[in-house]
Amino acid sequence: MNGWLLAAAATLGGGLAVTLWGVATGPLGRRVVAQNLATAVACPGLLLLSQAYERPAYVDVALVLALLGPVGTLVFARLLAGELAAHPPRLWGPTWATAALGTAVVLALCVVTAPGRATLKLLVVGALLVGGNVVATRALTGGIRGVRGG
User: Fold this and answer.
1) Is residue 150 one of the residues assigned to a domain?
2) pLDDT for 93-113, tens place per residue?
């Protein structure tokens, strides 16, 4: 077992345990936050697994997940807007924690990856991951100013 595999196991194990706890307990707001957290944790985990197993195809899966994960959260935010408006979730702490995790993983992988197309793909995944989670969090906590009365 190498260090990348150990880091992936810690990221996926810890993050998905918190996600399962959030989905299984608590109000609707916590469950939607847990769904958003699942994609924010799985993406860095896939990037770490890509480096551990030396499989560049896992980066493509992480790219798709970083793109579609926040979109799914935005769909839930739109469909559940009435219920979430009554008690909007407070989730800036988890958002910044997962953004820091994603940034740290992407930067670590950029350091060990040779400059080129692979590094650019990692940076795109990182930008989508952090940006998508910030936008999804903003949508869950009350919307964006100027859009639907946010």
Assistant:
1) no
2) 888 888 899 999 999 999 999
Instruction: Tell me the torsion sign for CA atoms 65, 46, 63, 141.
Output: positive
The parent domain of residue 87 ranges over 3-140
Sign (positive/negative) of CA torsion 44, 39, 142, 92? negative
User: In this structure, is residue 145 part of a structural domain?
Assistant: no
> Three-state SS for 88?
coil
Predicted model pTM: 0.87
Q: Is 12 inside any structural domain? A: yes
- Dump strand ranges (E) for the chain: none
Which helix (H) or strand (E) element contains residue 94? helix 92-112
Number of domains in the chain: 1
The answer to the question of residue 149 being in a domain is: no
Per the CB < 8 A criterion, the answer to whether 90 and 141 are in contact is: yes
User: Residue 110 — φ and ψ, nearest 5°?
Assistant: -65, -35
